[in-house]
Amino acid sequence: MYDDILVPTDGSEGMRRVAEHALGLAELCGATVHVLYVVDETAYATVPDDVRGRVRDALEGDGQSATKAIAERAIDRDIDVTREIRWGDPAVAIVTYAVENGTDLIVMGTRGKTGFERYLLGSVAEKVVRVSPVPVVTVHAGDHEALLTEIEELIGV
């Protein structure tokens, strides 16, 4: 069903759950996993010129660590894996990568932000879901206990 699965990562702890879903699907389908880290250039643009090189190296290092962590888990499970770091708008870079590499599925995390926080910050996952020409599976990557508490409050438990 799926031959190539894209897993965008930000290197956060919540990515463990996301990666587990992606790797499980890859095992079931015999798919290759593509691990992508996108450095948001809008944040990088405000860095002063005198430290720009060091910041760029640090961000590249973060990307290497984040993609390596998932790649190692894939290799341990005998799953073919590729890694890449891109610069740009994260949502655009994710969808562009998916199209360029013919991925069949994107598995990505969402933090579940709501209200004002979501309005201010936006949601990379939401943007990808809206414009992606391939299916997108979102996995809650935030504080799982806080999410359960919020759900219980909403339904009155």
Summarize this structure as a short list of keywords or feature phrases.
22% strand; 157 residues; Rossmann fold; globular; alpha/beta; five-stranded parallel sheet
Mean pLDDT: 88
Strand neighbour order, sheet with most strands = 3-2-1-4-5
Radius of gyration: 16 Å
Per CATH, the architecture is 3-Layer(aba) Sandwich
SS-based structural class? alpha/beta
Number of domains: 1
Distance between the ends:
39 Å
Compute the number of strand runs.
Answer: 5
* Main sheet specs: 5 strands, parallel
Order of helices and strands: EHEHHEHEHHEH
List the helices and strands and how they pair.
Layout: E1 4-9, H1 15-29, E2 32-40, H2 41-44, H3 52-76, E3 81-88, H4 90-100, E4 105-110, H5 115-121, H6 124-131, E5 136-140, H7 144-155
Parallel strand pairs: 1-2, 1-4, 2-3, 4-5
Question: How does this model look, in words?
Answer:
α4 runs parallel beside α6. Residues 116-121 have low confidence and may be disordered. The chain has helices at residues 15-29, 41-44, 52-76, 90-100, 115-121, 124-131, 144-155, and strands at residues 4-9, 32-40, 81-88, 105-110, 136-140. It has a single domain (4-155), classed as 3-Layer(aba) Sandwich (Rossmann fold), CATH 3.40.50.620. The longest helix has 25 residues, at 52-76. α1 links the parallel β1 and β2. The chain contains seven helices and five strands; from the N terminus they run βαβααβαβααβα. With 157 residues, the chain is an alpha/beta fold.
